[in-house]
Design brief:
Belongs to the 'phage' integrase family. One of its GO terms (molecular function) is DNA binding. Keywords: DNA integration, DNA recombination, DNA-binding. The protein contains 18 helices and nine strands. A six-stranded mixed beta sheet has the order 1-2-3-4-5-6, with helices on one face. The radius of gyration is 27 Å and the shape is elongated.
Length: 437
Amino acid sequence: MGDAGPMENCRRPEKALSARFVETVTEPGKYFDGHGLFLRVAKNGARQWVQRITIRGKRSELGLGSPPAVSLAAARKLALDNRGKAMLGGDPLAEKRKAREGLTFAKAVDKYLAAKLSEFRSEKHRKQWRSTLDTYAAPVLGSKQVSDIAVQDVLRVLEPIWKTKTETASRLRGRIENVLSWATVAGHRTGDNPARWKGNLSEMLPKPAKVAKGDNQPALVLGDVSRWWRDLAKRDGMAARALEFLTLTAARSGEVRGATWDEFDLGDVATPATSATRRAVWTIPASRMKNGRAHRVPLTPEAVVRLESLPRMEGSPYVFFAARGGMLSDMTISAVMRRMQEAKEKAGDVGYLDPANRRPAVPHGLRSTFRQWAAEQGYPRDMAEIALAHFIGSEVERAYQRSDMLDRRRDMMAAWAAFLQGDAAQAGNVVRLGVAE
């Protein structure tokens, strides 16, 4: 280790850098790898890849982006490519400057999404990415050169919604950071990423966890559940049937809307009018789950009856299909609840409001309603969390938690179905397996 100057440490490791070292290093200084590549760590924790290179006899430094957006492997490839260009008489610095000219944030979003959209999990995720940037970021940043965007510009985007739409704002920040990281690697800007959280925006905005409580999805109060359920049964249409099934299974909207018939094993099932043993199961593949793990859902007789009553469209794999056979949109299901609320208000009824924030309940809030019901009924916490497909405990605990409690959850979901229908006696006449936590 030697001194690079009076203010900055220059560190030359005995061997090349490792991905682990890049991920964990915090001490300010310069950490060299090869081909003139080094990692610069600033006093505020900001990190940047830099390459020292001789171009046409003149020594220069090239910024290559920042980790983790630019990995060690990616930085090495960029450094090697630049070295090759310089050796052949090219000027990678001039190329970078030329590429940086005239790129607005709006154009950067287009270029970034063109390169990255295929990595997103679903069409909904792709639309959300574009929608949040267009709605919140474009009015402030769209026409600005990416090279000119600073921390204050990003704050102008985030501050108006940070406390009222915290989850959306937090995701938006990450998306702006990704676009600007791409712009840096592509040579359109230099320096720190103004949308970076740690050691940057974290010093100017409250932590999302501290303000996100007011951003919860509005839920049904337990006392409104049975009348809401009866109201829903009067609604016609595929979206209303999807909402019923969503409620019976405590599933997410995307899981229900994307359900295909090959995910269901109805087996020897019973209906409410029979007493045969039934073991109907809906298995949602990992590719469609938010947590990336396959999820089994025990189906009650009420859920099976609704499935068997559904029409099928030739050529469409979807259980709950749209008019042309494709997947229902998220807004279609939300619209059912919105119309139910509007009808109540028109009749002079307050409708179905979340008691905490006085906002009309929405489909995703039904999962919170189920969770509250399960807790008040004394069901074990882990069982209720598994029903919602949430991760439970630490990584070590999950490694030992091999059972998904399918049969025990079947009894719980049967009691939930009874509660929805207002059958308090049946809902309460269930043997509790385990103790409340």
